[in-house]
Amino acid sequence: MLANTDHGLSGTGKPEFIFISWLLWQPRGADLAVEALKEVRKLARYEGIDPDIVRLRALFASLAGARGAVH
């Protein structure tokens, strides 16, 4: 069994865990690019608050196929 003992706010890899979890919970047949863009828009209001949020938003933007700024 593995235990996560890193309780810091940033740089923990949490954005990747959240992203993978989100992917696994998407219903079969979902348009992942469209759903990812929805997440990008939700996270936009938190931009700059924490590096983890910036990283998570970048992961969703990448999946959405965003090139450049996403509004």
Summarize the structure.
By secondary structure, the chain is mainly alpha-helical. The protein is built from 3 helices and no strands.
Verbal overview:
The protein is mostly helical. It is 54% helix and 0% strand. The radius of gyration is 13 Å and the shape is globular. 11% of the residues are buried. The model is unreliable at 1-8 (pLDDT under 50).
What would the keywords be for this entry?
single chain; 71 residues; mainly alpha; 3 helices; 0% strand
What does the secondary structure layout of this molecule look like, with pairings?
Layout: H1 14-24, H2 32-44, H3 51-64
Percent of residues in helices comes to: 40-55%
Helices and strands, in N-to-C order?
HHH
The mean pLDDT is: 83
- Label the overall shape: globular
Structural class: mainly alpha
Largest sheet: none
Percentage of residues in strands: under 5%
Helix run count: 3
- What is the terminal separation in angstroms? 41 Å
Radius of gyration based on Cα positions: 13 Å
User: Which ranges are low-confidence, i.e. pLDDT below 50, for 5 or more consecutive residues?
Assistant: 1-8
